[in-house]
Design brief:
14 helices, alpha/beta, about 325 residues, 2 domains, four-stranded parallel sheet, Rossmann fold
């Protein structure tokens, strides 16, 4: 699987066509409560109901499908705090590809257990001391494994963009689309789709307030590296935007918001109470942006709910926090 140039819309369309057979065609739902609150029509793309519990299955399967026969026999290595790990694990098991998954030792226990249940070799590391890229490269060099990067890979970006591609098939017209941002792959893939089939749609990327490396990078025009952020959005703790996503996002342009943990907790509570769905904090980044009073929502609004992999104990803690304190407003870019 060569590391080729930046993906384009055709790559997203091809991934979307392939994934029709292998991924869940996740539903789009609405909420009268939020529509009335915002005076808008909000459409939620429920990737928390995707295989492996998040949109990440799309990119993992797409990337694994590009491997040649020798690469599939030798296997792959991936690193992730949870959702990418789960996605690669499930996709690799289905395609009978050996997989080594590097996970931070502070990742949710349920996610670590789920990855192991798929038969993967799990290697834990300390995110505050270890460089996960260097660790992965050791497996590439010593065992000949192929790296499946969580966001800085053309096939991964194309697979992630398929969520937006599918959303626009389900909801023909949107005035704005709110997209969670970690390493930037989903935002980059979404922008490729919007540029080609919905150029009038405003795209808003949403990051954790303490992990706004993409926001900072776009402000200075170069990728900025930060310390591992402390945030309840464990799936958006990237310390630097991916090179490929950053180039696409800088080229195509979008708006960015940064939201507090309190706002994310409030969004988790909103999903549980009003839509009867479990959505993890990272998956609620887009919703937290929409709920921000200064987000400029109007008309027909799309929100990608990216994942629902959280254990019941963590969910209970988050909901208790939400009951104790209201969510904060977002900080505009």
């Amino acid at each position: 699987m060569p590391d080729h140039a930046l993906p384009r819309y055709a790559d997203v369309a091809a991934a979307s066509a392939m994934l029709r057979v292998h991924a869940v065609h996740t539903p789009v739902i609405t909420s009268p409560v939020i529509d009335q609150r915002l005076g808008a029509q909000v459409y939620f793309k429920c990737e928390n109901l995707q295989r492996s519990g998040s949109f990440k299955f799309r990119d993992a399967f797409n990337a694994l499908q590009q491997l040649d026969a020798p690469q599939k026999r030798t296997g792959v290595v991936a690193f992730s705090s949870g959702n990418h790990a789960l996605a690669v694990a499930q996709a690799a098991r289905g395609l009978h590809i050996p997989a080594v998954i590097l996970m931070p030792d502070d990742a949710p226990g349920t996610k670590i257990a789920a990855v192991k249940a798929h038969g993967c070799e799990v290697v834990l590391y300390d995110r505050l001391k270890d460089d996960r890229d260097e660790l992965a490269q050791c497996f590439v060099e010593r065992r000949g494994l192929t790296l499946i990067h969580p966001f800085d890979d053309a096939h991964v970006i194309a697979g992630q963009g398929s969520a937006a591609f599918e959303l626009f098939e389900q909801v023909a017209q949107l005035d704005a689309l709110f997209v969670p941002v970690g390493g930037g792959g989903l935002l980059a893939g979404t922008l490729l789709v919007v540029q080609d089939i919905a150029p009038g749609c405003r795209v808003i990327g949403v990051e954790p307030e303490t992990g706004n490396d993409m926001q900072m990078s776009l402000r200075v025009g170069a990728r900025v590296r930060i310390a591992p952020p402390h945030t309840v959005a464990d799936g958006a703790r990237a310390t630097c935007p991916g090179a490929k996503p950053f180039d696409i996002i800088r080229e195509l342009g979008c708006d960015l918001l940064a939201v507090s943990d309190a706002a994310l907790v409030d969004a988790v509570r909103f999903c549980a109470e009003n839509m009867k769905m479990i959505v993890e904090p990272t998956g609620c980044l887009g919703l937290a942006g929409v709920l921000a009073a200064d987000a400029g929502t109007a008309g027909r609004i799309g929100v990608i709910l990216t994942g629902g992999n959280t254990d019941l104990h963590s969910l209970n803690t988050l909901l208790q926090q939400a009951a104790a304190a209201p969510g904060d407003k977002a900080a505009p870019y």
